Structure formats: structure tokens, C-alpha cells
Amino acid sequence: MTGGRSDWPGPTGSPSGFFPELLGEMEAIGLFCKYAFKANTPPIEFEEVSLAVVRHTGHLPLALKVLGSHFHSRNLDFWKSELKVLTKIPHDEVNGNLKLSYDGLNILQKKIFLYVACFFKGKGRHLVTRILDAVGFEAVSGITVLIEKSLLSISEGVLHMHDLIQEMGQCIVRECYPNMVWVPEEIKEVMTTINRLEAVEAMVLPINSYLGISYNAELLKSMKKLRLLDVKDWFTSSEPTGFPEQLRWLNWFRYPFDSLRITRDMTNLVGLNMAYGQVRRLHIENKIILPNLKFIDLRNSKITMFPSVSGVPNLEWLNLFKSNLVEIDKSVFLHGKIIYLNLSFCTFLETLPLCIKMKSLHTLLLNDCLKLKTFPEFSPDMEKLSVLHMHTCNSMRELSPSIRLFTGLTSLFAGGSVAFVTEKEDVIQGLLHCSSLRALDLSRIFLDDSFPSNLHTAWPLLEEFLLFNNFFTRLPATISQLSHLKYLDLSYCDYLKDLPVLPSLIQVLKASRCRSLQKIGDLSKMYKWLFKISIWGCPELLMDTESQSHIAKLLMKSLVQNCATVNHRLSIMVPGSKIPYYFSNRRSGNKIEVYIPQNQISKMIGLAICCSLPPTRSILTIKFKPSDEEKLISGATHPAKTADFMWIGYMSIDILGRLCHDFESEKLTISFALDMDDIIECGVFVIYKDDVKTTTKIGSWISDYDELGKINRYSASTTGEQLQHGRWPIAPNLLFQRKTSDHNSFRVFV
Fold first, then answer.
1. What is the pLDDT of residue 125?
2. Is pLDDT of 745 > 80?
3. 355-356/377-378 β-pairing
4. DSSP character for 402?
5. Do residues 334 and 358 make contact, with C-beta atoms less than 8 angstroms apart?
6. How far apart are CA 560 and CA 606, in angstroms?
7. Percent of residues in the chain assigned helix, strand, coil, to nearest 5
């Protein structure tokens, strides 16, 4: 939507960092036309082909200049023919210039670059680092160098690479490294050509690609140099009896066979990922040692019994999330190197060993183990345990006293666990010694007014506090002294009568369905960083005139402008039935169109969006797309139904820029949808730089509390690699997905 904004750094002042900032679409067209036509705009008959070339360049100035010169003085037939060539073969001069940074890399950095270009663009940095280290590269330093040389960028933990740079890398691979394959047709050729089969080093089938054929499992043994294998489904027609000796990383998505055999030929294996597979039995041959195996991922698999890991001395990461586990070998719980163990949603698992001795364990996830009856003793030397999540363990009746030993816990999620309900007073007293806690979930454990009062001295570092669905009528006043607290959830606390004074840095407050809540203060005035507020379904509040006045202030234009001034997110859900007056662009129903003149796009800093809706517990989805292809039919100016709630959000231009750097349509259609209900009315207004000039800026700045960055207790991984951020109930943060394949659209889950 905005020209000039991208994830790519500008010039660094050195030859290795020559990539300038990407241009917006109008700027890119202007630069291209300057070289192609010696004018600012293309002739009418060349408009379509010019736009196609500009989009092919990804708005990279170097490519715009080179290709503009290349097409200068050519006729339309040449343009159309050459466009077809460009989609198949990169332009030599563009490639040559882009290759300058690549040529300055050392051999390991070059291989990392080529692996990302062919296999890992758009993947999570942590996962890619593991795989690259496994196959023998130094990924941490290598990725850092690639970023410094502008060959890579990272946004929200994901690796990004410009399309033309990726093309250049893939071109190098095809010319110099035919032992790396990722295109389905090439994979088929390798699997049917013995010389290529024996030479292949890395084979990765993209997740959205299909081969349409299965191969003899014995062919795997012929792939003698294979170090990385990433395939899916029926890649072979029968269960493999062995794998190449050099194999370092095996990723077989939806593995279709009910058993997997780890043999003595696999001693070089570092990572094993069989997520979402049918494997029921994992066989590790007797008396073999797998000294390099560090990562095992069997999440969402059918495995029922996990075998001994006595022969896997360096195992660090074991993910059995949502598997059919009934039994786990006791060696797992005596392992000295495991750092991460995920058993969440193993709903058939009933018992764990009486004692756990895992001195390296950092993260233990037991969420929703519904049949787990006992909580084991912990060895005193488990001092590294930092994250313990065990919410909704409904069958666990008592806790081991050893849980009180873990004074180094930083994250404890125990909401809804019966053991915490029955022993809550003793357990909470024990937790008062856990001074390192940063995230604490004590929801649904029937807490009452006997809640401890010394919160600020017990948990001075606490940032996230989940207390929803409890029985207290008030919170201790000392909660205001939790100076680091940014996230507080009090939803469904039916007996809570008023909100206490909150910490000054609070950013997220959820207090919906608090049916006895009678008073709130002036939140818009008291907490300058409070960007997400959810206070709905609280009927007593509507009886208090002062509280109604404070709710009205949360919908004021000045609050939105304040957020825009400091590029601050905003999401507010409160009682209300009318779209605020300053949303002059409003419309009945679930769709609205906004027009931004091209000459104003550079002055735009964000969008305020709003909708009114009925009582609901649905998920609100907001979708953005250019409206050139869609015309809205005029409708009534006033809604036919009565709304009960109002949602207002602010989305900065930076968020749109991260979505898609070439998104510059003058007209934008915004559509709202609920899972089970209808949107009554919606509105939008554009905020320009001039709108916030007179707004008093906030003197200091802190980053928005990132709900996406905090540990997700439902997630199969704490690395965020799968972006399992959840679909929040009404009024959470703005969350975006990338462009869909069938149309140019975006979605935001709120």
C-alpha cells in the first residue's frame, strides 16, 4: 500500500550491501518507464505488458533499470515474447549484478544461500537453522552474513528473499549443483536415473506439490550421498527397510505406514520429523547408538508406545503433541540431555513414572492430558525447568510437593487442572517463592478473595496473568505494583465487582462476561499503553453513568489518533450500538470500500476500521483486497438490526507494508465475517500524517506486547515456527495471513 516500505535494508555504504529499498508500484512504474520509454508513463498499448514486467522485477530498482533499457525501442510482439522468456530464464545482466553479493560469500555461506533459495524461503528461522546445522553448515553466522549482504531478510521469525534473488540462486543450483532438487519433474527424473539417484544430496518436495507416483522403497538405499530428504505421503509404495547412511535430516509429512525402523545405518541422523503420519510403532534396533540424533517430531501421529531412548544419548527435542500415546518408555524421563518435551493433548496417556530425572529439561508441556492421573516427583537437580504447562489435566487429583522446588519457573500454565483446584491454597503459597515467573495461568481453579496480597514482591517480573473464570469479588490492590504486567485476563469472573488500579504499563485487558462488574475507571486516560481492551457482556456496567462515560471515551477519535502517532496497535471491544461519528465512510452490512488517491498514499499512516455486531462468541475475520474487480451494490445507510457490541481497530501502514510491498490499489474493499452471526454495520477512515500533527505525542515508547510471541499453551511448538497463534475470541490483535492463491486478498483474525 505504501511506496518505499519493505523488509529490505537500504544501502550500507559497501559493495556487499548494494540493494536499495524496494519501490512502491507507482514509483517502480515511473522508474521503469524512464528507461523503457524515456517518459514517466507507458503508451496506452504498452500499459499491460509494462505492468507485467514491473511486477516481475519485484520493484527492485536495479532490475527496473536493466529491463527498462532492455525493452527500449522494442515493438509489442517482442515485449510479449520476451515476457514469456523472463518467466522461464532470468535476464543475464540482472542476474550478473545480483550475483556480486553471492560471489563474496565463503563456501558454507554460499550453500546456506542456495538451500534457502531452493528449499527454505518462507520457513521459520529456528527450524531452518536446525536443518542447516544438521547437514553440516554453520547456520547462525551464515544467515547473519546473508542478512548483512541483503540477500535475506527476516520478518516475524520467517526467512524472506526477493523473488529475483531467489531466481538467481536457483539458476546457480541448476548450473552448478544438480544434486539439489525441489521441482517435482526433476525429482521424478532423479528417481528414475541411477547416476543422479546416487549423486543427489538434498531432495525437498514443496508441501503444496504432488508427484502423482510412488517409488520402490529400495531406491532409498541407492541415494548414497543424500543428506536431506523432505517428502510426503506415498513417496514410496511400501515401508522403507532402510535409509542412506549419510542422511542427516528426514522429514516425511503424513508418513503413510504404521511402523518406522531406525537401523544401524542411520547413525548420522540429526532430525526425524514424521508429523501427521500413520506410524504406530517406532523401532530402534537393539544395541545401536544414534549419537547425532537430537530432534524427534511425531506430533499428530498414531504412535501408541514410544520406545527406549537409551541409545540416543544426545536427544534434545521430543514432540509427541496430540499423538495416540498410551505408554512412554521410562528412559525418556531419565534422559540427561532432553531440553523440550511436549506431551500436550495426549488424551490416552494415563501415567508417568513416579519420578522424573531430566537435569537439562527446560520445557515440559502436559496440556489437556485428560486421563493423566498423577503428577510425578521431580528430581532436585532439575534446576533448568523454566516452562511448565499443564492446564486442563482433569483427572490429576494431586500434585507432587516437589513442584514447589522450581523457583526458577518463568511460565506456569495450570488453568483448569483439578489438582490445582483441590490444593490451590498450598500450591499458590508455594508459587509465591517463584520470583522469576513472567507468565502465570491460574484460571478456572475457583480462586476467591483469599487471594494472596503480596503479588508485587512474589512475582516482580510477571508480564502475563490469566485469572479468567474464578470466584473472587476483588483483586488485591498490590496488583498495581506489578510493574512489568502487560497482559491481564479477568474474563468470566462472575463475582468481580470492580477493576482495581492497574500497572502503568498494562497493554492488554480482557474483562468480558464479568456479570457483576459495576465500575471501571477512565482507561483511556489512566493507561497510555493500553491498546487492547475487551469489556463486553457486563450488564451491570451499563447501569453506571460514570462507567458508560468512560466506555464512550474508548471510542473517541483522539484515542485512535494517539495510537497512530506512535504507530501503536489498537483493538477495542465494548458495549455499543452506533458507529462513532468520525467514521464518515460507513455502510450497512459486512463490506465497505475505501478510496485512497494515488497522490495521497505516501501521506497515509494507517487505517481505522470498525464494525458493530450482535452478542456473539464467534471469530471475527477481516479481509482486505483491491476492489477494481468488485463493485459494491448500494444498500441502506442504516442497519436493520440492533447491535450490542462495537469493535474498533487501528492498522498501521507498516502492517500493510509487511503484507505485500506492491499493494497500491487506490480502492480497497474491506469485508467482515463472523463464524455464526451477521455483521450489522461497518466503517473505515484513513489517517494521514496531517491528522496527527496536533496530537500530543507520548514522551516515551515501549513495544506492543506481542501475544503472538508469548508461549502458546496449545501449540505443538514453542518456537513459533508453525505460527500457531490461535484464533482469538472477539477483540484480539490484528493477525494476517499472506495472499491467497485464488485472489488478491488478505485476512485478519480478530
1. 93
2. no
3. parallel
4. G
5. yes
6. 10
7. 30, 20, 55
Rounded Cα distance between 586 and 234, Å, is: 52
Do 480 and 406 fall within a single domain? no
Q: Are residues 721 and 582 in the same domain?
A: yes
For 482-521, give one letter per residue: b (16+ CB within 10 A) or e. beebbbbbbbbbeebebbeebbebbbbbbbbbbeebbebb
Regarding whether 496 and 374 lie in a shared domain, the answer is: no
Domain count of the chain?
Answer: 5
Which residues, 6+ apart, have CB-to-CB distance to 715 below 8 Å? 722, 724
Q: Which three cell numbers stand for residue 535?
A: 469489556
Q: Give the list of residues 6+ apart from residue 648 with CB closer than 8 angstroms, or none.
A: 555, 560, 570, 571, 572, 580, 608, 609, 610
What does the pLDDT average to over 638-643? 50
CA dihedral 633, 634, 639, 644 (to 10 degrees): 50
Q: What's the mean pLDDT when you consider all of the chain?
A: 81
Q: Quick: pLDDT tens for 256-309.
A: 999 999 988 899 999 999 999 999 999 988 888 999 999 999 999 999 999 999
Residue 575 CA to residue 505 CA, distance in Å, equals 24
Structural domain range at position 60 = 15-88
Let me know: does 350 contact 325? Beta carbons within 8 Å: no
Q: Is the pTM value of this prediction over 0.85?
A: no
- Tally the residues of the chain: 750
Q: List residues bridging with 440 in a β-sheet.
A: 412, 465
